[in-house]
Design a protein that fits this description.
The C terminus is likely disordered. This protein is globular. It has 362 residues and is an alpha/beta fold. The chain contains twelve helices and 16 strands. The protein has one domain: Aldolase class I (TIM Barrel, Alpha-Beta Barrel). The strands form three sheets. A twelve-stranded mixed sheet has the order 7-8-9-6-5-4-3-2-1-10-11-12. Strands 13-14 form a two-stranded antiparallel ribbon.
Length: 362
């Protein structure tokens, strides 16, 4: 297994199959590439089925044992079932989707080898969901979650981006997964560095603190040194708080200015056009895989791993062979105070944070 110069082994890859999407979520950063949403029809610059499979076969040679397919919306690829079926047998296969196309396809994906699924679900309020996703597909997403459960993909992980418009719905979503066997919740910190609108960000530590108070049990997951909170429904007392038939599991993805998160990152990403990137919030290290021959893929993969950065985004840069704080990045990163590298605590953000995770009236 390849490791970068900081000792982080790359055990997983995250492969974007398309930048097309039937949603237009206000927070979307398209795997760090920015807003490139376009026509729904297939486009020539997307990797072919054979390209994707060849890449996975090559990285499997290096001990990569997991792949997550993303987009855009990966279910817009009609060949998704074939890609999953042809993924090397030693790889765990997962998928991130908005869920609208899972009815009618979830069972076939499971038959092809899909093992886990994440479904984007930012609120249980239909109007807020519509505002955030700019798509009137709330019922379709709920049906997609049911289809995934019926196909045997439990636990289904619900992805909820936590920002000014959704923070007030966190308690309701936590209760939802606590009451419904087969669901988990992943709260994802809003990332203004790549999505813009820093005024939408909230203090994610307040959400951590609230969950600490609600949880029956807290544990740490090896991936990104991430906390898991086990919450029983409506404050019920349970004998085993980690029994998912009687408690819900919630975790927070909080990469922003979090060196611990990055120190435990073991993934490399692939864009829909076939470029490798070592960090979500970095596009100055995109590496093409040429005509995607096995030799070119091997060379590009080795280079990408060798050149991974030690910290989220372009926060750190190399000068004279040493890693130093990138002052230009701090100066240009909206919502970051160059004086101390920490978040700007202006009155507007404090007001938002003080409300979380209570419901917002907006």
């Amino acid at each position: 297994m390849l490791a970068d110069e900081f000792g982080r082994e790359v055990s997983g890859v995250r492969v974007s199959l398309t930048d097309r999407c039937n949603f237009d979520c206000v927070y979307c950063h398209n795997e760090g590439l920015g807003d490139t949403r376009g026509p729904m029809a297939p486009r020539e610059h997307e990797m072919t089925t054979d390209d994707v499979v060849r890449f996975l076969e090559v990285v499997a040679e290096f001990g990569v044992d997991s792949v997550k397919f993303t987009g855009g919306e990966p279910l817009l690829r009609d060949d998704l079932e074939e890609i999953v079926a042809r993924t090397p047998a030693e790889m765990e296969v997962s998928l991130t989707t908005n869920g609208t196309m899972l009815p009618g396809r979830a069972a076939d994906l499971v038959d092809a080898g899909l093992e886990r699924v994440n479904v984007s679900q930012d609120a249980l309020d239909e109007e807020t969901f519509k505002q955030v996703t700019q798509a009137g597909a709330y019922d379709a997403v709920m049906d997609g979650v049911d289809a995934a459960l019926d196909a045997g993909l439990a636990p289904v992980k619900l992805n909820m981006v936590v920002f000014e418009r959704t923070a007030g719905y966190v308690p309701e979503m936590v209760e939802h997964v606590a009451e419904n066997d087969g669901l988990r919740l992943q709260l994802i910190e809003y990332m203004p560095e790549i999505a813009g609108h820093p005024e939408w960000a909230i203090d994610i530590e307040r959400v951590h603190g609230w969950l600490e108070e609600q949880a029956d049990h807290v544990e740490r997951r090896e991936m990104h040194d991430r906390k898991r909170y086990w919450v029983s429904p409506d404050g019920e007392s349970v004998d085993d708080p980690t029994d998912e038939s009687v408690a819900g599991m919630v975790e927070i993805v909080d990469p922003v200015e979090n060196p611990t998160f990055c120190a435990n990152c073991h993934r490399v990403r692939v864009t829909h056009e076939g470029y490798l990137k070592g960090c979500l919030n970095r596009n100055d290290d995109l590496r093409p895989m040429g005509e995607m021959t096995r030799t070119e893929i091997r060379d590009a993969f080795r280079e990408t791993v060798a050149n991974r950065v030690p910290f989220y985004g372009e926060y750190m840069v190399k000068e004279d062979g040493e890693w130093v704080v990138n002052e230009k990045y701090l100066d240009g990163a909206t919502g970051v105070d160059p004086a101390d590298g920490g978040p700007v605590e202006d009155a507007d953000r404090d007001a938002v944070a003080d409300e979380a995770p209570a419901r917002s009236d907006d």
